[in-house]
Amino acid sequence: MPNVLLAAIWMIGAIFSFMAMALGGRELSSDLSTFQVLFFRSVVGLLIVLVLVWRRGAGVVRTGRLGLHVGRNLAHFVGQFGWFFAIASIPLAEVFAIEFTVPVWAALMSALFLGERLTPRRLLALALGLSGVLLIVRPGVGLFQPAALAALVGAVGYAASHVCTKRLTATDSPLAILFFMTAVQLPLGLLGSAWQWQPVQAAHAPWLIVVGVTALTAHYCLARAFSLAEVAVVLPMDFLRLPLAAALGYVLYNESFEALAVVGSLLIIAANVSSLAPARRVSVR
Fold it and tell me: Quick one: how far is CA 108 from the chain centroid?
């Protein structure tokens, strides 16, 4: 019981971090481009990681798999871009609901590229997840939002980065993965920002710091929670992000969460529950 309670406390920290990061992205989206948000996120993250590397020694970030780090972060950058782009345009709850399909896509990619078995349970999860996404995104109808498609592409990008992370953790330290994440993605954000750079004002600084810091704390809190309790215990806590995001969007931005989106979200949650495995790694967002 103490471990479960501690896991719950860490999950509260993770949920708070995700909510704060989403709010930061939404507040910044009216003035800065998505690429700028990603660039400053990497700047803040890299400064924090460099302090940790300085304390532990440069040897902690040595790697013989630089190509895999680059590939992981290209996929992760796509995931981040889709997530922050969607945050600016559609209800927060819809973004989080679509994000919950990441484990489903990761299971499919693991079967395709890592040779893992695609069990009937995972096939069921894939079918439920796709059904939920279709209800939220609704392609081919007037309510279709390109931002919802961006969120879906982002979820696939995050899944690809999960698969790469699973391979990297066999040889590289978590701090090395964080270092290369910020170091590789910083120039990507800068290049994307160059052609649509918007003036950065002092009022943006607090939100930029929030986005950069919570991106790291969310991962850390999730990792601690999963280290203290089983996936079947921790994962339902993570689902609390969905109603909280809906409530936050309604209170702060007057966002509505339609009936079809609710049904789609429940199907996606069911997909995650049906694919629960004894062990699962958590990647960085």
Answer: 18
Q: What is the pLDDT of residues 15-44, one digit of tens each?
A: 999 999 999 999 999 999 999 999 999 999
Task: State the DSSP code for 204.
Answer: G
Nearest residue to 65 via CA among 77, 73, 57: 73
Specify whether the CB–CB gap between 128 and 39 falls below 8 A: no
43 CB contacts (<8 Å, ≥6 apart)? Answer: 186, 212
In sequence order, the 6+-apart residues with CB closer than 8 A to the CB of 104 are 122, 125, 126, 129, 130, 159, 268, 271, 272, 275
Determine the 3-state secondary structure of 156 from DSSP.
helix
Residue 144: is its pLDDT beyond 50? yes
Could you give the residue ranges of the DSSP H alpha helices within 30-145?
Answer: 34-56, 66-87, 92-99, 102-113, 120-137
Asked whether the beta carbons of 37 and 29 are under 8 A apart, the reply is yes
Rounded Cα gap, residues 113 and 110, in angstroms: 5
Sign of CA dihedral 163, 169, 172, 175: positive
Residues 202, 204, 208, 209, CA torsion sign: positive
Sole residue written with tokens 């309670």:
5
Q: What is the pTM of this model?
A: 0.86
Say which DSSP state 170 is in: T
Residue 175, number of CB atoms within 10 A of its CB? 14
Q: How far is CA 283 from CA 68, 96, 100, 158, 222, in A?
A: 15, 16, 13, 8, 9
Q: CA neighbours within 13 Å on the CB side: how many for 20?
A: 19
d(C-alpha 273, C-alpha 103), whole Å: 10
């894939």: which residue's tokens?
126
